[in-house]
Design a protein that fits this description.
By secondary structure, this protein is α+β, with helices and mostly antiparallel strands. The chain has 3 domains: 155 residues, Glutaredoxin; 170 residues, no CATH class; 127 residues, no CATH class. The chain contains 18 helices and 23 strands. The strands form 7 sheets. It has a 7-stranded mixed β-sheet. The chain is elongated and about 120 Å long. The two termini are 27 Å apart. Pfam families: AhpC-TSA. One of its GO terms (molecular function) is antioxidant activity. InterPro entries: AhpC/TSA (IPR000866), Thioredoxin-like_sf (IPR036249), Thioredoxin_domain (IPR013766), Thioredoxin_ResA/DsbE_sf (IPR050553). This is Thioredoxin domain-containing protein.
Length: 544
């Protein structure tokens, strides 16, 4: 809504410079009045009005009227307007748009006529013939001059709407809000010397992940916060290992650094909530020497609205949403929680997913219930599931034509998770490609059927899983089900023959469909120490 100063109001004082650097101040007590003409180059209504202001200038300046053009453009574009209309009145540059913002108009041209003290006598924005004639008459009366005439008055339209003021351009509005302190950001401000590269500065402060990060300026953070309805000071979670509070603002700052768009912010917030639960055990995921890292799986309508990749090159490069959402969580854990490599993050080898790992399930090509529906959410609800996973491993089967055979192939591959002799494992994420999914679909093979088949083909007698001279790695006695042990704590003869599947429970095999429609390759991501001593996948709804 326009807040252009109206009759009898005091017009804000200002001092601007012309293209050659000369200073022009308002109000001017030496003038009989002032006429302010706000304009920009790319505006047809401004082009209509500018020659009419020139008529007023030529007619009334000899009687003491001060005419000031106030351009919302730079010097080059302003010169183009001056030359196009052969303007001879003084034109100033509102480079930072501070004056335009203070005058509060929505559209240009905006005209403000004042008396010698700066009190408004007439004002309007856009163009109407009636307002032009009334302003001309009022201006002439204030100068003691005759009313100016316009040679083309009959050719002028009765009305023409103005063009949007540059003040309302989103980037400009954010800059103005920051410059005038109209923000509620609570983060500490850090000033970077103009002589210092901001990317190098961020790296020197230890705020990056080894790749350059986007400097989180106030303008960028304010833009990011537009992606959520939550208050910036709301605490999303306490981030391990330091259990530092992560407010919505801090999440937004790290999302900016990661390169997120504002519409990704709700996903990052939900992922943060999920990763910081006791069930997920983020501190343990960080401190382990294993490969585990937060893996984010997105389900529901938001996948499409933010352009999240669910298809070919699923775990690869080239998709901003996938690349930056996972990175934002990793940066948040590092910068807010203190989870830095070599400090709390003690992974022996690490893996590329520690930079980022975020994928979407390709629900549209699957006959199965999506992952989030299995975990208790409606199909049209958007969710994130955060899973402590290692890097994807290949499942190659281009020959199986039956669901049973393909399930066996998958089971044999999954048996290698961590080590073939370690059974009774916790969670694993199985990513079934669309071609493999169609093989199961043709036979009506359900996820439950696939889980049962994997458990069947991975089952081994306990005696084959215990350490021996041939391979000293194997199941520790503490991991053997107690019912298979005798009173001496050793396996009974029957216990040695007991068949143990790879996974502790069928439901620990998390299944999703994803990837390109061509190629009979699936993948699995092994989990880490599931259970009370480890990490469990956590699903959270994504809200605005």
């Amino acid at each position: 809504m326009s807040e252009l100063p109206s009759n009898a109001a005091a017009a804000p004082a200002f001092s601007l410079t012309t293209r050659d650097g000369s200073s022009v101040s308002f109000p001017n007590n030496d003038a009989t009045g002032s006429l302010l003409f706000f304009f920009k180059r790319d505006c047809a209504t401004c082009d209509l009005t500018a020659p009419l202001i020139e008529v007023l200038h030529r007619a009334l300046t000899p009687f003491g009227l001060q005419v000031i053009g106030i351009s919302q453009d730079g010097a080059q574009d302003t010169t183009a307007v001056i030359n196009r209309h052969d303007l001879s009145f003084t034109v100033t540059l509102d480079r930072d748009l501070d004056v335009s913002a203070e005058y509060g108009f929505d559209a240009v041209p905006a005209l403000v006529l004042t008396d010698t003290t700066g009190k408004v006598r007439y004002s309007f924005e856009g163009f109407t013939k009636q307002d032009l004639l009334a302003l001309a008459e009022t201006a002439a009366g204030g100068c003691g001059a005759s009313k100016p005439t316009f040679s083309n008055i009959d050719e002028l339209p009765e009305h023409r709407p103005g063009c949007g003021s540059k003040v309302h351009d989103p980037d400009v509005a954010r800059r103005l809000a920051v410059r005038h302190g109209a923000t509620s950001l609570g983060a500490r401000r850090v000033r970077v010397s103009p002589a210092e590269d901001p990317f190098e500065f961020m790296a020197a402060q230890g705020l990056d992940d080894g790749l350059p990060v986007v400097p989180p300026t106030e303008e960028r953070v304010l833009a990011m916060l537009k992606g959520t309805t939550r208050t910036p000071s709301d605490v999303v979670a306490h981030v391990p290992p330091n259990l530092a509070p992560a407010t919505v603002e801090k999440v937004a700052i790290n999302a900016v650094m990661a390169g997120c768009r504002p519409e990704y912010l709700p996903v990052v917030i939900a992922a943060t909530e999920a990763a910081c639960t006791e069930e997920f055990n983020l501190h343990g995921v960080l401190a382990t020497t294993y490969f585990a890292t937060p893996v984010i799986v997105v389900n529901g309508p938001i996948r499409r609205s933010i352009g999240l990749n669910c298809g070919r090159n699923l775990f690869g490069q080239g998709f901003r949403a996938n690349a930056t959402i996972g990175r934002a969580l990793q940066l948040l854990v590092r910068n807010v929680g203190g989870g830095k490599p070599g400090d709390v993050d003690m992974s022996t080898l690490g893996q590329p997913g520690k930079f980022t790992c975020c994928v979407g399930e390709r629900e549209e090509v699957s006959a199965w219930e999506p992952l989030h529906v299995e975990r208790g959410f409606a199909v049209d609800t958007s969710t994130v599931t955060v899973f402590a996973g290692e890097a994807p491993r290949a499942i190659r089967d281009q020959l199986s034509r039956t669901a049973r055979s393909l399930g066996a192939s998958m089971g044999l591959c999954l048996d290698t998770m961590a080590h073939p002799k370690i059974h009774g494992m916790g969670e694993v994420l199985l990513v079934v490609s669309p071609e493999h999914a169609r093989t199961f679909e043709r036979e009506g093979y359900s996820k439950a059927d696939l889980r049962a088949r994997i458990q069947e083909v991975t089952a081994r007698p306990l005696r084959e899983l215990l350490p021996n001279d041939e391979c000293q790695k194997g199941m520790a006695l503490g991991a053997v089900p107690p019912e298979l042990l005798g009173t001496d704590g050793q396996p009974t003869p029957a216990g040695l023959d007991a068949m143990l599947p790879k996974f502790r429970r069928d439901e620990d095999i998390l299944i999703m469909v994803g990837g390109g429609t061509a190629g009979k390759f699936s993948a699995f991501l092994g989990g880490w120490a599931s259970g009370t001593a480890g990490s469990m996948a956590v699903t959270r709804e994504i809200t605005d």
